[in-house]
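Question:
When you can, review this sequence-structure pair and walk me through the tokens.
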Amino acid sequence: MLKRLFGLRERSSVGRTGGAYSVREADAVRPLHDIPQSSVGAPLPCIVAGEHFLAVAFICQQNDPTWDGSYVQVVSAQVEVEQICVVQFHRSIAHFFGPPNDEAFHGHPLAERGLGPYGSFEVTSSSWIHALERMNAVHPYHKPEHFAGYKHYVLSFHDTTFECVAQSYAFRMHTGSLQVVVGSLCSSL
């Protein structure tokens, strides 16, 4: 009654748009538990991308059981840290890196489906993959089944969100500085 009286509408993720796609009823979010937790303070995610290469490197969450809360650790890409994760996506066809950050994450069109900050996810029955397949439908040799093996992945960080469409992923752990790790990725292109 109050909704009608004051012209309020219920929030619905159906038809809501995100960076590159509109969410449909079928979109579902599944957490990926194997990818290590990114730092909730300063993961400093970096992307290395080319036409046939896509990887995201970030600082992992490191819990110090002796930390008493009286200081903060300042990190940068040049500071050596104990754990850096590099997630490489295989046969990627699209990616997006930008908003929302952790404070505006409820504005993401998939937030109501279980997508949240500081996590790794797969979006099943993805509207984005469907949109990419429809975009390609004008190609004279288009085959919808070519898109069947693709998956929509989301890595959400403190200040940014990374999304991509790829066939699979693998990750490796490194130690050292993010700058050196990302530099080695660039040299492997």
Observations:
- The two ends are 60 Å apart (CA to CA).
- Residues 1-17 have pLDDT under 50 and may be disordered.
- The chain has three helices and nine strands.
